Amino acid sequence: MKTVSCSMLSCDFSQMGKELERIQDAGCDFAHLDVMDGAFVPNITFGAPVIKSLLPFKKIPFESHLMIENPENYIDDFIKAGSDIIIVHQEATNHLDRLICRIKESGAKAGVAINPATPLAACEEVLGNIDILLLMTVNPGFGGQKYIKSVTDKIRRAAKIRAEKGYGFLIETDGGIDGETGREASAAGCDILVSGSYLFKSKNLEEAVLSLKNA
Ligand code: DX5
Ligand code: ZN
User: Fold this and answer.
1) Ligand 1 pocket residue status of 182, Cβ below 6 Å
2) Mean model confidence pLDDT for the chain
């Protein structure tokens, strides 16, 4: 069974608490919260106060995907807002190792994300110290984009390095994940599937979640 992390970017933001309850009831394992600052990515979404406002509804781990410049300046805010997992972009910081240590010292799980054009080698030195490697399967900033097939090989290579070195990180993919691309990413070695528009556009949310769990 795969882990399903539902990206709230495609939810009805006017009902975000109720939408969180809906995805929890449908069996999603994580709530994936896409934080965007309009600088690291060409879009702006929400910050720590919005995540904090969801705590009364929270029954599953919050995975905060920080698509922001200088994430080191905001780690405490996102921890206090209730993030169980904090994912930072390798491309957004000069001191990735220090940032990962800080996230883990604060008690959250640490994830590193890389964009489709970023080589695996850019984060190879920290793979032994992270909980999640997030391989973006779209260029970050928007939901509803098409899965970039060239990343499938990157998933395979990450799984190979993990096996060879005996590392414990989980591989996660994010962007354009539906039943078919979910199967492709899973077959290549992905453990956690992030999905937004496929889930929120589905006629039957429970069935759509199950299709990814069984991918
Ligand atoms: C994109 C975000 C993704 C996105 C996934 O920058 O990081 O989490 O919302 O949405 P879909 O599944 O619609 O591609
Ligand atoms: Zn995301």
Assistant:
1) no
2) 98
